[in-house]
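dumping this here before i forget
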Amino acid sequence: MLIVGAGYHSENLRKEYQKTCNQACRKASEILKQGGNAVDAVEKAIIELENSPLSNAGYGSNLTWDGTVECDASLMNGQTLHFGACGAVSNVWNPITLAKNLCIKQCDSLSLGRVPPCILTGQGARSWAQRMGLEIVDDHKMISARAFRNFKHCKRKLKKYSIQNDVKFSPLDTVGAICVDINGVVAAGASSGGVSLKHEGRVGQAASFGSGVWALMSRDGIKSSVASCTSGCGEHLIRTQLAKNTAESLFESPSPTESLDKCLKKNFLHSPFLWDVPERLCGALALRHDPQTGDGEVLWGHTTKTMCVGYMSSETDRPKCIISHLPPNVEPGHKAVVSGHPFKIAIQESPVIQWEVAESNCNGYLS
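structure:
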């Protein structure tokens, strides 16, 4: 399951959003069909989103005040509980691959008591990526025509009107993906270009532990496995550690949709850490899987005007893409809308586990 930003999605681009979602879902599904793991599937889905000029991640990211691209990304493996992230990194074509490599390298043993880094930023992240053989490109190749037009437009707006914040004007935010694979392993990833006109060196929630992604696989075969990723205003998400809180709210509740609704209300909309924030903007994507019954749910919720999500199983031919809207009379940043779909992992006599997405829908909630 993946998210193509929580913010404002133009109806004029609906078909393009759906096409991008579908391509990303298919890339992840191909990995799973070939016996790949959840970490690889998450990476492939996000690479597709990073390569699209529609999203605010990788190519097409929002530009800093100085007109450059600085990206954040992270990935968490729910089996090992390892985490890798990069922040404010330039020139790396797919930041999610850098984050994945940092996550994998957590298993390495270094000499002289050194510890492998789990988060790298700026020039250090770029140098590490280069040593690992990742694709490094010139600055201008990371800038899409759409992002550059938005950059110029933002500058003009600020000079003319001194605009502080306009959700209808704000570009899309962080993209992400969550997955459970054939062995029940869960993983979560996120990637972002950050806020438009941000200060150079700024690091958002997509590179912050517990804020952008969270994944935890069942250790005893009794408790649920959970995964989540977030989108929205990075500073709001960092203060509230929304990814971690979202995932952990799903552990024991008989109604995961209601749990997500309560989490967004308690831990975000009514969070004491956001006491000075008038408009609280977020999107959350979550997954819960019960290893005993094979039942699971994929869920999403947001306080932004819209949120674009897509999902697909390795057993279905077509992905599903949804652009979720707040009700017309609800102002962004004050209420949350939540929805989801159940799925089933059919455990057969053989060790092969397959995804089966159920036809029925969970009930939606507006908090």
